[in-house]
C-alpha cells in the first residue's frame, strides 16, 4: 500500500516570502479575505493549521480602497477606552479621513483566528498609505490578487 504518512510542518522548516499588494481600486472585503488566506498560509500545499506557515504581506495605497454601497456613511467602527462612558464610535468615512490603513488592517485581522497563533499571523501584515513602504530590503514580490 505504500507510505501514506502526512507530513506536518515544523516552524523552523517554514519558508516565508514577502508579497506587496496595491489596494488601489480593490474592494475591501475581497482584498481582506485573500490577504488573510496568504497570512495563514492556506495558499501553500504545506499548510499546517497549528503552525504559522503564512507569508508576510505589505499593502500599499490603503487610501484608495473601495467600499461599495452606503458603507462609507453607514459602517461604524467602535473602540473603548476601558473607562466608564469611554465608547468611541466612528463612521467609515471619518476613519478613512483619519487613518485609512486602520480600515484595511481591521478588516484583515478580523478574518484571522482570534487566538495567539492568529495574533502572530497578524504581525506579518504591514499596511501603508501611498505607494511607498520601508521593506525594500526584504525584496517583496508584487502580487496580483487575481492570481490567488
Give a structural overview.
This protein has about 150 residues and is an alpha/beta fold. It has a domain at about 15-70 and about 100-145: Ribosomal Protein L13p, Chain: A (Alpha-Beta Complex), CATH 3.90.1180.10. The chain has helices spanning about 30-40, 70-75, 90-100, 100-110, 115-120; strands spanning about 20, 55-60, 75-80, 85-90, 125, 140. The strands form 2 sheets. A 4-stranded parallel beta sheet has the order 5-2-1-6, with helices on one face. Helix 1 links the parallel strand 1 and strand 2. Helix 1 packs across helix 4 (about 100-110) and helix 3 (about 90-100) crosses helix 4 (about 100-110). It is globular, with a radius of gyration of 18 Å. The relative contact order is 0.23. The model has no long low-confidence stretch (mean pLDDT about 95).
Can you tag this structure with a few keywords?
about 150 residues, alpha/beta, Ribosomal Protein L13p, Chain: A, 4-stranded parallel β-sheet, 5 helices, 6 strands, globular
Low-confidence stretches: none
In DSSP terms (H or I, runs of 4 or more residues), the helix count works out at 5
Beta-strand portion reads: 15-25%
Oligomerization category of the chains in this entry: single chain
Radius of gyration: 18 Å
| Average of per-residue pLDDT values | 94
Order of helices and strands: EHEHEEHHHEE
> What's the β-strand tally?
6
Report the major sheet: 4 strands, parallel
Shape: globular
CATH architecture grouping of the domain at 16-68 and 101-147: Alpha-Beta Complex
Within the CATH hierarchy, at the fold level, what is the topology of the domain at 16-68 and 101-147? Answer: Ribosomal Protein L13p, Chain: A
Helix content: 25-40%
CATH superfamily of the domain at 16-68 and 101-147, please? Ribosomal protein L13
SS-derived structural category = alpha/beta
CATH class of the domain at 16-68 and 101-147: Alpha Beta
The largest beta-sheet arranges its strands as 5-2-1-6
Amino acid at each position: 500500500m505504500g507510505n501514506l504518512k502526512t507530513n506536518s510542518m515544523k516552524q523552523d522548516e517554514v519558508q516565508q516570502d514577502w508579497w506587496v499588494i496595491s489596494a488601489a481600486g480593490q474592494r475591501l472585503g475581497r482584498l481582506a479575505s485573500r490577504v488573510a488566506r496568504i497570512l495563514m498560509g492556506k495558499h501553500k500545499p504545506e499548510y499546517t493549521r497549528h503552525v504559522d506557515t503564512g507569508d508576510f504581506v505589505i499593502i500599499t495605497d490603503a487610501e484608495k480602497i473601495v467600499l461599495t454601497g452606503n458603507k462609507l456613511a453607514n459602517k461604524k467602527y467602535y473602540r473603548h477606552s476601558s473607562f466608564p462612558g469611554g465608547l468611541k464610535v466612528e463612521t467609515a468615512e471619518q476613519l478613512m479621513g483619519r487613518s485609512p490603513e486602520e480600515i484595511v488592517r481591521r478588516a484583515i485581522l478580523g478574518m484571522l483566528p482570534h487566538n495567539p497563533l492568529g495574533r502572530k499571523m497578524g504581525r506579518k501584515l504591514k499596511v501603508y498609505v501611498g505607494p511607498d513602504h520601508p521593506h525594500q530590503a526584504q525584496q517583496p514580490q508584487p502580487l496580483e490578487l487575481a492570481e490567488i
